[in-house]
Amino acid sequence: MKISQLILALGMGSVLAGTVVAAPLPADTVSKKITLTAQINDAIFISKPDGSTWYGTEELDADDYKQKQFTKTLPVRIWTKNADFNASLAQPLKMSNGSYEMVNAKVSLGSAQGEKALSFDTAQKITQVVSTGDGYDEVHDLKISVDAPTMVGALSTNGSYSGDLVMLFEPVAAAKP
Question: Are 104 and 65 in contact (CB under 8 A)?
Fold first, then answer.
């Protein structure tokens, strides 16, 4: 008797689930999209220091109460098979609120060699020095800096500014002996 009730309950659950899926969405619903990606690369891996995730949305902090310059430093873990890799911006960093754009955007990557400015038109060669059994693994400081725009006329610079920081990391082949 209990097995037949279980089968009946499972059957009813399937019918209800099918009905819910088939029902049209009400007019006041909100659809959300999440783009999912996964990448496997045996020459280079970039992540947060925990080694498994990457940054989503980050807020730049005002340097002081005047809110003229905004900065952020993010630790970035880079594992490479060989000591060298190239880093650059895949596009210029632009942050806008629709009316104004932040100016003087600067992005740099700190390493054992010091801090190197990243740009859209030139790749920077970075050499890692911390060797592991399977490559090189270091945490670098990614520094972002932008200046607030200057007000034009009566149009306020207040608002939320956003933009995408898109970087390109490329492994460099080891030199042949």
Answer: no
Q: Can you say how many angstroms the Cα of residue 169 is from the centroid of all Cα atoms in its chain?
A: 13
Separation CA 25–CA 6 (nearest Å): 30
Strand spans (E) along the chain: 44-47, 61-62, 69-80, 84-89, 103-111, 114-118, 124-127, 131-132, 135-147, 167-171
Are 143 and 112 contacting, i.e. CB atoms less than 8 angstroms apart?
no
pLDDT tens, position by position, 106-152: 999 998 789 999 999 899 999 999 999 999 999 999 999 999 999 99
Do 70 and 60 meet the contact criterion of CB atoms below 8 Å apart?
A: yes
With H, G, I as helix, E, B as strand and everything else as coil, classify residue 15.
helix
Q: How far is CA 76 from CA 26, 46, 66, 156, in A?
A: 43, 7, 29, 35
Contact of 95 with 106, CB cutoff 8 Å: no
Residues 45 and 78: their CA atoms lie apart, in Å, by: 6
Domain range 44-153+160-171, CATH architecture: Sandwich (2.60)
Give CA–CA dist 162/94, Å, rounded.
8
Model-wide pTM > 0.85: no
Q: Which of 138, 167, 131 is nearest to 55 (CA)?
A: 167
CB 138, CB 111: distance < 8 Å: yes
Q: Which of 92, 67, 62, 64 is nearest to 156 (CA)?
A: 67
